[in-house]
Specification:
- By secondary structure, the chain is an alpha+beta fold.
- It has one domain (21-159).
- It contains six helices and six strands.
- The protein has helices spanning 2-13, 74-77, 82-97, 104-117, 124-135, 148-159; strands at residues 22-26, 29-31, 34-36, 47-51, 58-62, 68-72.
- The strands form two sheets. A four-stranded mixed β-sheet has the order 1-4-6-5. A two-stranded antiparallel ribbon has the order 2-3.
- α3 (82-97) crosses α4 (104-117) and α5 (124-135) packs antiparallel against α6.
- It binds zinc ion.
Length: 163
């Protein structure tokens, strides 16, 4: 029974995650089993926060002090495959990394190229399943995004060159 008491005592130490609680910053996060970080166009390392009340996989924002940040909701992220999670992170990073070239289409493309660059996306059958999963994403998930299939095909075209 002593062990049970110890387990209960330890469980009480585990931080409770409540709605609306924002955690961070972190500069290196595990995304689908891969350690990922993000550098802004200015060269500044992007601060990453976790917010379980965020109505999205993740968003790129500017903090009140002007610092580039990414906010992620792990509960939403958990619905997707590792490659889509990693692509989404790279997409949000792109909003900070692209500087004057930042827009949704370029961020989509940047995300795909990053996956190829890091060897995460490296063959056509993998690209096909990635496209199929992306095509199932609702276009309204984030404002300014295309409906699933059209958007997925555009993203695939950015990743087609596996050189
Ligand atoms: Zn975006």
């Amino acid at each position: 029974m002593k062990l049970l008491a110890l387990i209960i005592a330890l469980l009480a130490l585990v931080p409770r995650i409540s709605e609306g609680q924002v955690m961070g910053p972190q500069y290196l996060v595990q995304v689908g089993g891969l350690a990922m970080s993000c550098k802004a166009n200015s060269g500044v390392q992007v601060a990453i926060y976790v917010d379980y009340s965020l109505d999205n996989i993740g968003v790129a924002r500017t903090a009140p002090n002007g610092a580039p940040i990414i906010v992620l909701n792990p509960n939403v992220i958990s619905r997707y495959s590792p490659i889509v999670k990693q692509w989404w992170f790279a997409h949000e990073c792109a909003h900070h990394a692209l500087g004057p070239w930042n827009n949704e289409t370029n961020a989509d493309c940047f995300g795909a190229k990053e996956l190829v660059k890091f060897g995460i996306l490296n063959n056509n059958s993998q690209l096909q399943s990635f496209v199929n999963e992306l095509a199932s994403l609702p276009g309204s998930l984030q404002s300014g995004h295309l409906p699933g299939y059209e958007r997925a095909m555009r993203i695939a075209s950015c990743a087609l060159d596996f050189s």
